[in-house]
Design brief:
By secondary structure, the chain is α+β, with helices and mostly antiparallel strands. 31% of the residues lie in helices and 24% in strands. The strands form 3 sheets. Strands 4, 5, 6, 7, 8 and 9 form a 6-stranded antiparallel sheet that branches. Strands 1-3 form a two-stranded antiparallel ribbon. Helix 1 packs antiparallel against helix 2.
């Protein structure tokens, strides 16, 4: 009997927090930064990353996905690894449009056709080229490590993300309204995205889970948006 799908837990939060704050300090009022620090250190909703199935039998009780079925296995083709398993960033200067596109590729993967390094490399293509704001550690923390990825591959695990909604958090809007000049330093926007992830694995297993994440998206005038960082908590 396999264990039920267990959520992959992001790590490296200390570096993530420091990086996120570097960007946020440049674009929001002092009051908001203080509020974010408080949430980073003691509250807020955890961001969610892809769960991993580590065996192939029918899931048992425990922290299973919200919807489990034993329908037949997906007809999605298997094959050899591809060099571009992740869709490229969209050409947009709208932080909400960008955030929705990124969340969908983050929540979509196929361990049968891509290696962990290929998946991570594809996601890194979404990062901003400005080193002062790019946070590769935050991005890497959202992807299972190579060992776990191989275990997921042994189970033929793949997932498809679906985005339901995205918006600028209330605190972010309030801070920008209080001092719009803060935004013109780094042009980094906070965007919260909600959606779901459909996960399938060998033996006909399938589960659906709700997903939510807050992203820091850089959208300088005249340039396409790019990912700056991923917050360790989800902001309403």
């Amino acid at each position: 009997m396999p264990s039920s799908p267990q959520p992959f837990k992001p790590g490296g939060q200390s570096l993530m927090v420091r990086r996120v704050l570097v960007g946020l300090v440049a674009l929001v009022a002092v009051a908001l930064v203080a509020g974010l620090i408080a949430r980073f250190t003691g509250g807020g909703h955890r961001s969610q990353a892809a769960p991993a199935v580590t065996s192939t039998a029918t899931p048992g009780p425990g922290p299973a996905p919200s919807s489990i079925s034993t329908a037949g296995p997906s007809t999605a083709p298997t094959g050899t690894s591809t060099t571009n398993p992740v869709a490229p960033p969209p050409h947009t200067n709208d932080p909400v449009v960008f955030a929705k596109a990124f969340a969908q590729v983050l929540w979509t993967y196929d361990t049968r056709t891509a290696s962990q390094s290929q998946q991570l490399a594809g996601l890194r293509a979404w990062l901003t080229s400005e080193s002062a704001y790019a946070d590769p550690a935050a991005l890497a923390s959202q992807v299972p490590d190579p060992t776990l990825w191989d275990r997921m591959r042994d189970n033929g695990q793949f997932a498809t993300g679906k985005v339901n909604e995205a918006h600028l958090p209330t605190a972010f809007n309030q801070a920008v309204a209080a001092d719009p000049t803060k935004l013109t330093v780094a042009y980094v926007y906070a965007v919260t995205v909600t959606g779901s992830q459909s996960i399938t694995w060998t033996g006909g297993g399938r589960g659906d889970e709700q997903r939510a994440i807050t992203l820091a998206v850089q959208c300088r005038p005249g340039h396409d948006c790019a990912l700056a960082s991923i917050a360790p908590t989800v902001y309403p």
